[in-house]
Design a protein that fits this description.
Blueprint: E1 2-7, H1 10-19, E2 23-26, H2 39-48, E3 53-56, H3 68-83, E4 88-91, H4 102-112, E5 116-119, H5 129-139, E6 143-146, H6 157-165, E7 171-174, H7 183-188, E8 193-196, H8 229-239
Parallel strand pairs: 1-2, 1-8, 2-3, 3-4, 4-5, 5-6, 6-7
Length: 240
């Protein structure tokens, strides 16, 4: 069974390889569900690791419905990943009705070239998972990362099992809430891969800062922050 470790730093990537993970998914900001990592991080990890490195292409947190500008950024990021010798790309795009954006997904796959393509947990929002799986398989998707449309993969194991039973070359990879206490369940069900972060919390400092730089109230999956032209104009007019 392939164990894919989801990591967001060079240290975590090295730890994953040392532990025996067969490959990693590299991202940034795990607490936001993961976004595209920086050029510097991708380069550092690719140079340091011997195991395959798959890269998350997700331009922002929130939903998986992207503007034309965001989509262009995603394609450019894939070019960077290929230039840095990434082994695989992890991404996904949905329409406003929570169906796969088939045209753009095909474009992502095309831009991946020889890289493996994993459709990520945007799959857990689609309305017809069994049919969607088969169509993604026909398009050339290699892997689907899913929790079985449940909060954890263990909760969603029944749907995951159904998907796995119909899988051909498009592998179903359970992810979300997998650890040493339940990994055996997925091996018994015959899954070929699992996805987990196996992370722990470490303190960078014993001192608590006087104010927080994070804004939890803005972390909503159906909302996106964007610079407002008129609001910014007002401030510029005031100070100039």
């Amino acid at each position: 069974m392939i164990v894919e470790a989801c990591v967001n730093s060079l240290e975590s990537a090295l730890n994953a390889e040392q532990a025996g993970a067969q490959r990693i998914e590299l991202c940034a900001e795990l607490t936001a569900g993961g976004i595209t990592p920086s050029y510097g991080l991708i380069k550092s990890v690719r140079e340091a690791l011997q195991i395959p490195v798959h890269i998350l292409i997700r331009p922002r947190s929130g939903d998986f419905t992207y503007s034309d500008k965001e989509f262009k950024t995603m394609l450019e990021d894939i070019k960077v990943c290929r230039a840095l010798q990434a082994d695989g790309i992890v991404s996904g795009i949905l329409g406003e009705n929570f169906e796969v954006d088939w045209e753009r997904t095909q474009e992502l796959i095309k831009h991946c070239g020889d890289c493996s393509f994993t459709f990520h947990r945007a799959f857990d929002w689609v309305k017809e998972p069994l049919e969607t799986h088969l169509r993604l398989q026909e398009m050339g998707v290699n892997t689907i990362l899913s929790s079985g449309q449940a909060p954890t993969a263990e909760d969603g194991i029944d749907l995951l099992d159904k998907l796995n039973q119909q899988a051909g070359h498009c592998m179903i990879m359970p992810g979300a809430g997998i650890g040493h206490d339940n990994a055996h369940l997925f091996k018994l069900k015959g899954f070929k891969a699992i996805h987990l972060s196996a992370s722990k919390v470490i303190k960078n400092s014993d001192s608590e800062p006087s104010l927080s730089m994070q804004t939890p109230r803005l972390m909503k999956e159906n909302e996106v922050l964007i610079t407002d032209v008129q609001l910014l104009k007002k401030v510029i007019e005031i100070v100039n």
